[in-house]
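In response to reviewer comment 3 from the previous cycle, which asked for concrete evidence that the modeling workflow produces usable outputs, we include below a single protein chain processed end to end. The sequence was submitted unchanged, and the resulting structure tokens are shown without manual editing.
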Amino acid sequence: MFCDLLPSPLGELTICADDLGVTVVAFPGEVEAALAPNPNALVREAAAQLAAYFAGRRTRFDLPLNAAGTPFQRRVWQALCAVPYGETASYGEIAGAVGNPRASRAVGLANGRNPIAILVPCHRIIGGDGSLTGYGGGLERKRWLLDHERSRNTRDFSLR
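The workflow returned the following structure tokens.
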């Protein structure tokens, strides 16, 4: 595993990858602090794309991802990647997108286990009533990410 740290407006992010793709983007305190920086080209590219995102110069990521998870979790994470920059979707909408419209709670659990923050945009998922609901990085980070995207999005944006 290859890892590095990236200073960001949300704290120092840990970025890890294996030979197949990015495996982790984590906020401070979410992964072992004992990871020694040893970036490969993929980790460096992920750091560059994330830095451009925070600077407002990137709205999409072009990186191979390789998150460890169950087949259901992987389907949910893939559906999260389809939610456009600056927009939101509800847990119910994601459940429908993965072919199980009654699985909102399971989608919420899979969303909460997403190991690749920001690149897999679980921050864009909100409650069916438009409320900001749980986020592994904390609701203040979720709000910051949504506000960051809204301020740079040319389309109309609302939290429903």
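The chain is about 35% helix and 10% strand. We consider this sufficient to address the reviewer's concern, and the full set will be provided in the supplementary archive.
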